[in-house]
Amino acid sequence: MQESSNTRINMLFMLDVCLTDDYGTNPDGAAVYRELAVRDLPALIDMIVPPKSWDAVINLGSVQQILLAWRSKRVFEPCLITTLLDTIEQRAARYVVKTDFQHS
Description:
- The protein has five helices and no strands.
- The protein starts with a helix and ends in an 11-residue tail after the last helix.
- The relative contact order is 0.14.
- About 70% of the residues lie in helices and about 0% in strands.
- The longest helix has 22 residues, at about 25-50.
């Protein structure tokens, strides 16, 4: 996918509004979006937090916040959200520099 990291994360924000906006989304419409999203959510997360890219680190915080909110609101099955959270955290961990400073 050639779109910028910002464009890809915006797709997730848009989906969040469609699924959780209590003021503007028809509940029946949200249910249709939810059915479609559950099928494609892992692929969407793969585009936003790619397995071999710094975008995994850049987008981690925002994606975690959305997934945690969806889990608490039970937008999707908790096991799906947990799997996605584990996946993105593992991807981001590949790019985190671990240091162990010892003070004498």
